[in-house]
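Below is how a single chain appears once it has passed through the pipeline. First comes the sequence as given, then the structure the pipeline wrote out for it. We keep one example in the README because the format questions we get most often are answered faster by looking than by reading.
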Amino acid sequence: MKIGIHGKSFNEETRLFIQDAFHLLEQHEVEIFISLEFNQLIKEAGIKLRNPEVYEENENLEYLDFFFTFGGDGTLLEAVTHVGRAQVPILGINTGRLGFLATIARVDFEKAFTALKENRYSYDERTLIKLESNTSLFNGQNYALNDFAILKKDTSSMIVVHAFIDGEFLNSYWADGIIVATPTGSTGYSISCGGPLVLPQSNNFILTPVSPHNLTVRPIVVPDDCELSFTIEGRSNNFLISMDSRFETVDNTIELKVKKENFNARLIKLDDSNYFKTLRQKLNWGFDVRN
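Resulting structure:
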């Protein structure tokens, strides 16, 4: 079995867990392939690992059987760009905080690994959003699992984002920005700006304005087979665009179109996992200190 691993900086408690996790994988003779960034972190932390392979950015990882992330949702979002079109199945081990995507607790790591060995899992195919523009952006990794956003920069003034669906004018958003979220990303930046929760397999995109000037402007859900395009105006000539946690600065000459990517992110779903259970746990639904 060949497993890729990516992670972020970690504390002492997590260091001990990572060492134990590597020991378990080595006991089962797993071939481990670590991201260049994470390999440097584990070296600095003194974590021992026998003969790991190190992969570099933009390497084709289609030779992997699975991909593990040690961190939170942000780490898993980075892993999606590592895996890319190879669509290697990803399992997120949560050593971070909230964990909508990285749902496997540290104490359940051995149980999850055993489930993989015994084929007690399925694939959860998640839609990606793709950006097309008249200039090269994001080092060719112009796709995201959670969302694409246009945001103001260099000024406290609002910007104006003109939005079109399949070439037809939708609205001019006077706001701090606008988010186009996938169903997966509906529990991310979009929900914090008042966007709705959308189930992962809903085949939709959600347009959510960020602090709109007109309070009657509400989020809107559109089918994911449409093409969304945008032009931007503002007092500043520079604006931010983001794909998940990655940012670029652009000017008002930029042409931006987003649509559904032609490949998916493939998340591993263990047989005992449940999306609604995750929602209840992470959002504290039904929790009341009076009960």
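The chain has a mean pLDDT of 92.

See the next section for the split statistics.
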